[in-house]
Amino acid sequence: MAKEIALKYGCNPNQKPSRIYVEDGELPVTVLNGKPGYINFLDALNSWQLVKELKEATGLPSAASFKHVSPAGAAVGLPLSETDRKIYFVDEEELSPIACAYVRARGADRMSSYGDWAALSDVCDADTARLLKKEVSDGVIAPGFTEEALEILRQKKKGNYNVVQIDPDYVPEEIEHKQVFGITFEQGRNNIKIDESLLTNIISENKNLPESAKRDLMIALIALKYTQSNSVAYAKDGQCIGIGAGQQSRVHCVRLAGNKADNWWLRQNPKVLALPFKQGIRRADRDNTIDVYISDEYEDVLRDGTWENFFETKPEVLTKEEKKEWLSKMNGVSLASDAFFPFGDNIERAHKSGVEFIVEPGGSIRDDNVIDTCNRYNMTLVFNGVRLFHH
């Protein structure tokens, strides 16, 4: 390991010189392939913390798909269902738990995950490497790589794919620093531990909180710990299905993330699963086409004939009425917020996306309004007293 790594440039090409370094000791990362940049390392170090904590909290192999210093997705390594395999474009081969975790982390929001940075809590195996090789991705960080996995990854991007190994035992200093406009900021690291002990203060009339919801709420909270604020995360079946990051208004976070969660569910509609794609269509084009198909713009696409570029035959429209009916079947969703909900309108929007379990810090002067709205929809609401702002 080295004391510093020189980078091509900073956030933008004009920002030179650029490097990452430590004052004392050695960097906990080793570049095994490629030449990661400034933003790559920001994504790598934030995403590694997320998956490390996610595995500690759940005991399951964990993965994240990162873009611009926020997760596009995060998940644990539960087996893939038949529907999962269809909507995530995975063949019928058996996959390791860490490979399943990455499929689910990337698959929930494939549009946002395009060109991602991948993070793995466990050693990257050949299964995961083969999946990464198929996708448009900038790099991966993991505590180790098998020889076969490394050989596969070194073939990606004409040999320039970024592969970073991190020391899983590395513990940073308790005090962290950053500079803005030549001024140094100092604070204690956010070492709050997220586990089931944060889910005990149920203040709604409905006290039901099954183990699956506890798991999903922890996944959402840990994802938010490394998401640019304001932020909320919807989770279901061991994965985030919609993350709203960096919005000034919390209800806009809820809408943004809720729309992503709705898209995840709509992709499971039988009409979407049966779309007659042409052979050889690129994965990114397929993702984009599905996104258009489930949007309200698709009828215009049918009229102007561009559907012929992607489909063997003209597919039926998924009507607004059919989408509304399908979305009404969505349930069992968990929602976490990095700060309190100031108004009940957030809960109203969450209800439309099948949310039944919510965790937030509490502490708003309108907590009563939020609680009343949750009670009206028979939701389980937890106040954990923990704010998770990340900037």
Can you tell me about this structure?
Helix content is 35%, strand content 21%. It is built from 14 helices and 15 strands. The strands form four sheets. A six-stranded mixed sheet has the order 3-8-7-6-4-5, sandwiched between helices. A five-stranded mixed sheet has the order 12-11-13-14-15, with helices on both faces. A two-stranded antiparallel ribbon has the order 1-2. Helix 3 (97-107) runs parallel beside helix 5, helix 5 runs parallel beside helix 6 (147-153) and helix 8 packs parallel to helix 13 (345-352). The two termini are 28 Å apart.
List the helices and strands and how they pair.
Elements: E1 4-7, E2 18-21, E3 29-33, H1 38-58, E4 62-67, E5 70-76, H2 82-87, H3 97-107, H4 110-113, E6 116-120, H5 126-134, E7 137-142, H6 147-153, E8 162-166, E9 175-180, E10 183-188, H7 211-225, E11 231-236, E12 239-245, H8 250-266, H9 270-273, H10 283-293, H11 298-304, H12 320-327, E13 333-337, H13 345-352, E14 355-360, H14 367-376, E15 380-383
Parallel strand pairs: 6-7, 7-8, 13-14, 14-15
Antiparallel strand pairs: 1-2, 3-8, 4-5, 4-6, 9-10, 11-12, 11-13
Quick rundown:
Helix content is 35%, strand content 21%. The protein has 391 residues and is α/β, with parallel strands linked by helices.
Outline type: globular
> So what's the oligomer here?
single chain
Approximate strand percentage = 15-25%
Radius of gyration in whole Å, from Cα? 21 Å
What tags apply to this protein structure?
391 residues, alpha/beta, six-stranded mixed β-sheet, five-stranded mixed β-sheet, 14 helices, 35% helix
